[in-house]
Amino acid sequence: RREPLALVNLKKKNEETGEEELASRLGHCKAKATRHIFLIRHSQYNLDGRTDKDRTLTPLGREQAELTGHRLASLGLKFDQIIHSSMTRATETTEIISKHLPGVKKISTDLLREGAPIEPDPPVSHWKPEAVQYYEDGARIEAAFRNFIHRADAKQEEDSYEIFVCHANVIRYIVCRALQFPPEGWLRMSLNNGSITHLVIRPNGRVALRTLGDTGFMPPDKITRT
Predict the structure, then answer these.
(1) CB neighbours of residue 66 within 10 Å
(2) Which domains does the chain have, with CATH numbers?
(3) SS3 content of the chain, % helix, strand, coil (to 5)
(4) What does pTM read for this prediction?
(5) What is the DSSP letter of 185?
(6) Signal sequence span per UniProt (predicted)?
(7) What residue spans of 20-107 are helical by DSSP H?
(8) What is the pLDDT of residues 147-202, one digit of tens each?
């Protein structure tokens, strides 16, 4: 529903000539800027934590977040905002990354929390959530995709650079949806902790994947996927 034609009332007539000024109206609805979306997977965390509050970053995880923050800062881009999952491991990763990007505002959201987006195809034997989890998490994660991953608003004049700190399942699902691939294939991808995935959304709505799960900026002994 973001194509210019979907935003124009075709029945509305010009009061003076009685003719539709379609071209003019379309011009006001067309996006002009490109959005750069950087999806960051949280760093390594304590898997033994019983609750979300207990699942804090490990010492290695904190190192990974520092490396990711340094990498993002080294790109020399003017980041507009950091939107992050409200889960502890994503929030802590964001706090460390943000030290390298002073002045960039941080926004927390429950939409980006980890979950089971859709039943994977082919199925896997080691991970079988209850069916209800797919309905609950899937609707939320799809809402996150629709809310955050779209072409720029027509009022946006300059290209934007946004960071989203969240979780592997969420990122993999978003990548499939953004590229219009079957979303059931999300589990075929693997993402390292602290990795960077870069999506580009052009004004015409076309999406390109520039990097998927990049951790080439980390020493080999700092890379994990847990």
Answers:
(1) 17
(2) 1-30 (no CATH), 33-222 (3.40.50.1240)
(3) 35, 20, 45
(4) 0.91
(5) G
(6) none
(7) 22-29, 59-74, 88-98
(8) 999 999 999 999 999 999 999 999 999 999 999 999 999 999 999 999 999 999 99
